[in-house]
Design goal:
Blueprint: H1 2-104, H2 107-115, H3 119-124, H4 126-129, H5 134-189, H6 193-206, H7 230-238, H8 257-266, H9 276-279, E1 284-285, E2 296-299, E3 304-310, E4 313-316, E5 325-328, E6 335-340
Antiparallel strand pairs: 1-6, 2-3, 2-6, 3-4, 4-5
């Protein structure tokens, strides 16, 4: 009896142990599966963020080009209106002279005038035109020149409108791409955002501090000293901390990366374009070792921009779902250059 009870007890204990071990392995597997899933989602979200950063700055660059095209169209339309007014004045003068010629019965002169549509036509008929008085030639020439200028201005205007149409079409395509990627990102992050952000934060904290790669181009000439408003623009940047990233945002409540820089500099009276690519051409190149407060720092092939604030740190608007924050420059492996704004 005792031997039977002992055997039964051992069997039960073995079964419980196996059950516990089995359950433990199952739980561990589920945890690992969850970690693997989060890692996959994190990698995909980071890929989307990187792509969004580039496309957003391309969108901003296209927006600037659209506004430039609109400004050129407005200028050309004003020029065309002025040329038309000038032509009407010259035609009135020519009309008065034609009536005088008609009354005088000089049919040869009238024939030359009616046959000439361009200045070249007038000088092709130079043998006949020579019989026209110098003053009349000047009047005719002024009308013909006005007509040619108007035709050239019209052609230029059409080219500018075509340029605007192409830029607007590109803008629409980029906007659709951004919104599609944002929707995909939102779907991926749904329900696991806190876990993904935690993993991203853990990974960022574990990266060793490093200096930018040696391949970063160094400026050839010493940069100018920091502008007098450098500390003021940095203070403006500090005041934006915590405000959300929104693509194409330029303040005062939401920003993308170049929109943040543009807004901060605007507060100290300096106008910059809303594009990281164009901002990179607005200042004097500075090396990593020469960085001073207020310098613009660029990453990811100039597709992302931030503002250096000293002590190896910079302020930037990182990505969708994030806020304006301070980051360590040494942690970025994709630093590609810096410029100093000194207007």
């Amino acid at each position: 009896m005792t031997r039977k009870m002992t055997a039964v007890t051992l069997s039960v204990m073995l079964a419980v142990t196996l059950l516990l071990l089995s359950g433990g392995f199952s739980y561990a597997d589920r945890v690992q599966d969850k970690k693997d899933e989060l890692e996959r989602i994190k990698s995909e979200v980071q890929r989307i963020d990187s792509q969004l950063e580039t496309v957003t700055e391309q969108y901003n660059l296209t927006s600037v080009r659209v506004e430039q095209a609109r400004a050129r169209i407005a200028e050309k339309e004003a020029e065309l209106a002025s040329l038309n007014a000038q032509l009407e004045q010259r035609k009135d003068i020519l009309g008065d002279r034609l009536r005088e010629i008609y009354k005088a019965g000089n049919a040869d002169i009238l024939e030359v005038i009616t046959e000439c549509r361009t200045v070249d036509d007038l000088y092709t008929n130079i043998d006949r035109a020579q019989r026209i008085g110098g003053g009349d030639v000047d009047i005719i020439t002024s009308v013909l020149v006005s007509r040619e200028e108007i035709e050239a201005a019209k052609a230029d205007l059409q080219a500018r409108k075509a340029e605007l149409d192409a830029a607007q079409a590109q803008l629409g395509a980029q906007k659709s791409q951004i919104e599609g990627e944002l929707q995909r990102r939102q779907s991926l992050m749904s329900g696991v955002e806190a876990e993904v952000n935690s993993l991203i934060a853990q990974e960022a904290a574990s990266r060793p501090v490093s200096t930018p790669p040696r391949s970063v181009a160094q400026p050839r000439t010493p940069p100018p000293p920091p502008p007098p408003y450098a500390s003021a623009v940095v203070q403006v940047a500090y005041a934006q901390l915590g405000k959300p990233y929104v693509y194409a945002g330029s303040g005062p409540n939401v920003f993308d990366c170049s929109g943040l820089v543009m807004y901060c500099y605007a507060q100290v009276g300096v106008s910059l374009p809303h594009s990281s690519y164009m901002q990179a051409r607005c200042g004097t190149p500075v090396s990593y070792g020469e960085l001073q407060q207020g310098d613009l720092v660029f990453f990811h092939g100039y597709g992302h921009v931030g503002m250096y604030i000293g002590g190896g740190q910079y302020v930037h608007a990182p990505r969708t779902g994030d806020v304006v924050r301070i980051a360590d420059l040494g942690r970025r492996r994709d630093f590609c250059g810096a410029v100093r704004i000194n207007y």
